[in-house]
Task: inverse folding
């Protein structure tokens, strides 16, 4: 048998067996088909080019080449799948980071607005008027009072000073007790707005500070009140550290 013919047959068989018979990712069944196609292709081409010996060798070479091609296709398919999964995970991560950035931006905006509000409330308060010999809060005063309490509750360094007053009619002791009931009613409403009780300073002044003329009903109406004032704790003064001077008796 011609050696050159055998060699040529093997080369042709290898080329024919290495040519893909289909495209795209393959299953386990496709792997077997690829190997079978390589074997039979190598067998046929080898036989045609170099006779029976070429057929046997061509079949073996064809099977090896077909199996190698199939493994390469499976590896490429797995890489494509892993790449797709990685891209999907990267997209989800980018979306999560974007959402976190949006949330952080919203929080910073709310914080800035709160700081602006706090800067404008160094002197905040309200006065509530009461009817004669009465300690009930008027309906129209309740909503702004609750808003003031909620604002103070949102400020950790803030307290509310609640001071009750009465007009000068009647005994002084009775008026003092009446002013105390009025202040207590206001303090209770503020706690319902979320302000802790320990951040309330409640005072009862009675009629001691009234300057109304006798019989002046309009002035009396101004005396029957409770004042609510917001107070913020002063920032602590910076501690000054004295510089260490030369130690007596030590030469420098």
Result:
């Amino acid at each position: 048998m011609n050696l050159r013919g055998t060699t040529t047959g093997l080369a042709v068989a290898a080329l024919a067996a290495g040519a893909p018979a289909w495209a795209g990712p393959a299953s386990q069944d496709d792997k077997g088909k690829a190997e079978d196609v390589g074997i039979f292709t190598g067998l046929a081409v080898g036989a045609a080019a170099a006779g029976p010996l070429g057929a046997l060798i061509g079949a073996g070479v064809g099977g090896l080449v077909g199996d190698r091609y199939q493994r390469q296709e499976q590896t490429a398919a797995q890489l494509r799948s892993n790449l797709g999964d990685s891209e999907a995970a990267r997209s989800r991560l980018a979306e999560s980071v974007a959402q976190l950035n949006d949330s952080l931006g919203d929080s910073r905006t709310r914080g800035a607005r709160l700081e602006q509000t706090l800067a404008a409330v160094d002197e905040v308060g309200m006065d509530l008027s009461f009817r004669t010999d009465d300690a009930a809060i008027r309906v129209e005063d309740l909503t702004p009072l609750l808003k003031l309490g909620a604002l103070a509750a949102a400020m950790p360094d803030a307290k509310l000073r609640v001071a009750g007053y009465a007009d000068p009619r009647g005994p002084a002791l009775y008026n003092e007790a009446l002013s105390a009931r009025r202040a207590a009613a206001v303090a209770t409403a503020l706690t319902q707005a979320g302000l802790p009780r320990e951040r309330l300073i409640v005072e009862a002044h009675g009629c001691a500070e009234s300057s109304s003329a006798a019989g002046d009903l309009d002035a009396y109406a101004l005396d029957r009140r409770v004042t609510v004032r917001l107070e913020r704790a002063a920032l602590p003064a910076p501690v000054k550290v004295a510089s260490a001077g030369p130690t007596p008796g030590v030469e420098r």
Observations:
- Confidence is low (pLDDT under 50) at residues 10-24, 241-252.
- Helices lie at 3-18, 28-119, 139-153, 172-192, 217-223.
